[in-house]
């Protein structure tokens, strides 16, 4: 068994769930096992099933095939509300006024 964590955060709260998973568990499987839907009932369940995932801040290209190692922290990323380039451009426009 491997000890891992699954983390998800909203602007006002976060949840880190510790799990013991069998060797060979993928990042996506760990997110499913964590049951984040119960901790965040206001979000649609697809939020967790389709979200981008990372391990310790490094985005995973294919979370369905990345096998976890002991001590990994799987992070569930929320979609961006606004494109970072658009936000930067908007801030620059406000500062010029």
Topology (elements, then pairings):
Layout: E1 2-10, E2 13-21, H1 27-34, H2 36-39, H3 46-49, E3 53-55, E4 58-59, E5 73-76, H4 84-96
Parallel strand pairs: 1-5
Antiparallel strand pairs: 1-2, 3-4, 3-5
Q: What percent strand?
A: 25-35%
Structural class by secondary-structure content: alpha+beta
CATH class: Mainly Beta
The level of helicity is 25-40%
Across the major sheet, the strand order is: 2-1-5-3-4
Mean pLDDT: 85
CATH architecture: Beta Complex
Instruction: Please count the helical segments.
Output: 4
Largest sheet: 5 strands, mixed
* DSSP, total strands: 5
Instruction: Tell me the count of domains.
Output: 1
Ranges where pLDDT stays below 50 over 5 or more residues in a row are none
The CATH topology name reads Ferric Hydroxamate Uptake Protein, Chain A, domain 1
**Secondary-structure element pattern, one letter each:** EEHHHEEEH
Radius of gyration: 16 Å
Distance between the amino and carboxyl termini: 58 Å
Any idea what the shape is? Answer: elongated
Description:
InterPro entries: Mopterin_synth/thiamin_S_b (IPR016155), RnfH (IPR005346), RnfH_sf (IPR037021). By secondary structure, the chain is of the alpha+beta class. It has a single domain (2-96), classed as Ferric Hydroxamate Uptake Protein, Chain A, domain 1 (Beta Complex). The protein is 30% helix and 28% strand. It has four helices and five strands; from the N terminus they run ββαααβββα. It has helices spanning 27-34, 36-39, 46-49, 84-96; strands spanning 2-10, 13-21, 53-55, 58-59, 73-76. The protein has a five-stranded mixed sheet with strand order 2-1-5-3-4, covered by helices on one side. A hairpin with a 2-residue loop joins β1 and β2. The radius of gyration is 16 Å and the shape is elongated. The mean pLDDT is 85.
């Amino acid at each position: 068994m491997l000890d891992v964590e699954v983390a998800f955060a909203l602007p006002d709260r976060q949840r880190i769930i510790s799990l013991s998973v069998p060797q060979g568990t993928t990042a996506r499987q760990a997110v499913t096992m964590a049951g984040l839907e119960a901790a965040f009932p206001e979000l649609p369940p697809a939020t967790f099933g389709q979200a981008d995932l990372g391990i310790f801040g490094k985005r995973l290209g294919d979370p369905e095939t990345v096998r976890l190692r002991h001590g990994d922290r799987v992070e569930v990323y929320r979609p961006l509300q606004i494109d970072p380039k658009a936000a930067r451009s908007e801030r620059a426009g406000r500062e010029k006024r």
